[in-house]
Specification:
The complex is a heterodimer of chains A (164) and B (510). Chain A is an alpha+beta fold. Chain A is built from eight helices and four strands; from the N terminus they run H-H-H-H-H-E-H-H-E-E-E-H. Chain A folds into two domains: 65 residues; 78 residues, Glutaredoxin, CATH 3.40.30.10. Chain A starts with a helix and ends in a 9-residue tail after the last helix. Chain B folds into four domains: 92 residues, Glutaredoxin; 208 residues, 3-Layer(aba) Sandwich (Rossmann fold); 91 residues, Ubiquitin-like (UB roll), CATH 3.10.20; 89 residues, NADH-ubiquinone oxidoreductase 51kDa subunit, iron-sulphur binding domain (de novo design (two linked rop proteins)). The chains are: A alpha+beta (164), B alpha/beta (510). Chain B: Keywords: 4Fe-4S, Iron, Iron-sulfur, Metal-binding.
Chain lengths: 164, 510
């Protein structure tokens, strides 16, 4: 069995486990750690975690699949979280989100193998007095509208300017 | 008038940053002489004024806001005059702030949240110092006297919970702070953790001394990266200053921040405990209650951020003084959070009993859009939708329950007359399908069936039959779910149907 594990060992996962003292209760932190460096949780990472934490692969996969934050596939370089919860709905968030999705879709930046940007619906960013709210990677953006958000994305060189 | 101010404050709070506070700070740094200190304070919670720049001269702070980077050159050149179009006068006298009763948030926004000396200089440590001189039992008695109830939403008396845990047998007692503030319309925990983290840490230290906890964990949602950074740094500073010493059982106590992973259900305490154990965040059946058998099967207190942050004031001023605020069985203050279509979105800390109308109209200034108010959701996504006729309700646990609502974590989301309440009811069910942990059938399957029924109602299909069916389903979910997720999802659905029936029959009529 150790031979098999060795062949699919994942050094990132192994190091992340070590940082949590190989304790199974640290699994959520370990998965955050892996995702921060690798971008997603691979099959090899799951096998390594199971080995290092003395869990079954099914247990590890069960945890990975439970939480919205953890991804099983390589993701986009940037993540735009758009809040779709009530306080943002009440401030016109649904219409803003639809327009942002449409305009980014037209630019083609949210598609392909390694897209520039992933749009993710989330439910509350805790900025409900300045809704609709967004979180671009770790930058909070309040009172969003499509124009403001598109110019922010262009300014950060995440997307190119829309054709006039 | 043209002398530079002694100190100038611009919040580093994520809400302020979301509307340009960092850019304003950069402009200020470039425009002002080096002798002027720029401090990134926490937010005062008056979000419609953000970015709120405060100028301190001779100990008085005067506000300007909302400031854009483009305003800075003009403001600096003119010397921040009182007759500027953005001038707000003395910050402490801004009516929406002056009329609050800030106990928990007394220090939020005053200083750099990581300036421990400033926090101590403003009396922040007094509650903890008092607690150190008291026996654990005496601390618990004080909290019981205060009438403090859990601010996460369930409203369970904190002192009784603490007493149960202190008497429970175990190898180790845990203190878990629930900072998984997932309810839409709420941001009080975030504001405090980013603006005054030491008060939360002090509250946890007092609780640890009371129950003999040796391990403290804060379960903080991943959607709050700024709060994670600020609180983690604050814990490091606190530890460095030796302030953890002499607490907990065997004089050992420390606090660790653990990051959530985007699951709303992990705000439910038993689900949170599973997540802290590195497991799927599925809820646990009760009993046993966590105070008897919680994290790793040990006695565990789970308290909300605001519950714990209320404790330093209670210890400093006494349980009776705290009990003097509030009404009926709702004692002390509540952090009401105005959100949605609201002109003056803000955190309003006031004694229980203030009317919803006062909060929305006097403090909030009505809708931001200028359209008529139609519905208000109080208490997060599981709270009831109230109508204009309900606005005179007193904001306390019992009065809200009496009209079929709940206070929850104190969120107030205002909707204008463009809202379609059938769609809001459908969203409540949809949210439950997305966030249900899947452990119990009424919630896991019920929410999906409920969403389907509401889709049919919205399409005008057998409306009367589907309304009868959904009432039956709501009763089943309320009675049969393991936790508040499935158990309370019917609250927004039923309240929407009861108060806004015309939105559910419109399609059929057309």
């Amino acid at each position: 069995m150790p031979m098999l594990i060795d062949t699919i060992d994942d050094q990132t996962a192994r190091a992340a486990c070590a940082r949590q003292g190989n304790r199974p209760d640290g699994l959520i932190e370990i998965l955050h750690d892996i995702q921060a460096s690798a971008g997603f949780v691979s099959d090899a990472a799951i096998a390594t975690l199971a080995d290092a934490l003395n869990l079954s692969r099914a247990e590890v996969l069960g945890v990975v699949s439970f939480y919205h934050d953890f991804k099983r596939q390589p993701g986009a370089r940037h993540v735009l979280k758009l809040c779709r919860a009530e306080a943002c709905q009440a401030a016109g968030g649904d219409a803003a989100a639809a327009e942002i999705e449409r305009r980014l879709g037209a630019l083609g930046v949210t598609e392909g193998d390694e897209p520039a940007l992933e749009i993710r619906s989330v439910y509350c960013l805790g900025n409900c007095a300045l809704s609709p709210a967004a979180l671009l990677d770790e930058t909070p953006i309040g009172r969003i509208d499509a124009d403001r958000l598109m110019s922010e994305l262009v300014a950060r060189e995440i997307v190119e300017a829309e054709p006039q | 008038m043209n002398t530079p101010p002694d100190r100038i404050f611009i919040p580093g709070d994520s809400a302020a940053i979301s509307v340009g506070a960092d850019q304003v700070a950069d402009q200020l740094a470039a425009a002002l002489p080096d002798t002027c200190r720029i401090i990134r304070n926490g937010s005062r919670g008056l979000f419609w004024l953000e970015p709120l720049v405060e100028i301190e001269r001779d100990g008085e702070r005067r506000g300007f806001g909302p400031v854009t980077p483009g305003d800075i050159a003009d403001l600096v050149a003119a010397g921040f005059p009182d007759d500027h179009r953005l001038a707000l006068g003395p910050v402490a006298a801004i009516p929406q702030l002056a009329r609050q009763q800030r106990l928990i948030f007394a220090r939020c926004g005053l200083n750099d949240p990581l300036d421990l000396d400033a926090w101590i200089a403003t009396g922040g440590r007094a509650g903890l110092d008092t607690a150190r001189a008291l026996t654990p039992d005496a601390i618990i008695e004080t909290v019981k006297t205060s009438g403090l109830r859990g601010r996460g939403g369930a409203g369970f008396p904190a002192g009784i919970k603490w007493e149960t845990a202190s008497k429970a047998k175990g190898d180790q007692t845990w203190l878990c702070c629930n900072a998984d503030e997932g309810d839409s319309g709420t941001y009080a925990d975030r504001l405090l953790m980013e603006g005054d983290p030491f008060t939360l840490i002090a509250g946890m230290c007092i609780a640890a001394r009371a129950i003999g906890a040796t391990g403290g964990l804060v379960y903080l949602r991943s959607e709050y990266p700024h709060a994670i950074r600020t609180l983690t740094a604050a814990i490091g500073i606190w530890c460095e200053a030796g302030l953890f010493a002499g607490l907990g059982d065997g004089d050992h106590f420390d606090i660790e921040v653990r990051t959530g992973a985007g699951a709303y259900i992990c705000g439910e305490e038993s689900s949170m405990l599973n997540s802290l154990e590195g497991k799927r965040g599925e809820v646990r059946a009760k009993p046993p209650i966590p105070a008897i058998s919680g994290l790793f099967g040990q006695p565990t207190i789970v308290n909300n951020v605001l519950t714990l942050a209320s404790v330093p004031w209670i210890l400093e001023h006494g349980g009776e003084a705290y009990r003097d605020f509030g009404t009926g069985r709702s004692r002390g203050t509540q952090a009401f959070q105005l959100a949605g279509d609201i002109r003056h979105g803000a955190l309003i800390e006031l004694a229980f009993g203030v009317s919803l109308r006062t909060l929305i109209e006097d403090f909030g200034g009505g809708t931001r859009s200028g359209r008529p108010l139609r519905a208000v959701q109080v208490g997060g996504p599981l709270g009831a939708y109230l109508a204009d006729a309900d606005l005179d309700v007193a904001m306390d646990y019992e009065a809200l329950a009496a009209i079929g609502g709940m206070l929850g974590h104190g969120g107030i989301v205002v909707f204008n007359d463009t809202v379609d309440m059938a769609r809001q009811a459908r969203f409540a069910m949809e949210f439950c399908t997305i966030e249900s942990c899947g452990k119990c059938t009424p919630c896991r399957v019920g929410a999906t069936r409920g969403r389907e029924m509401l889709d049919k109602i919205i399409a005008g299909e057998a409306v009367a039959d589907n309304l009868a069916l959904i009432e039956d389903l709501c009763e089943l979910m309320t009675d049969g779910s393991l936790c508040a997720m499935g158990g309370l999802t019917p609250m927004p659905v039923r309240s929407a149907i009861q108060r806004f029936p015309e939105d559910f029959t419109r399609q059929a009529a057309e």
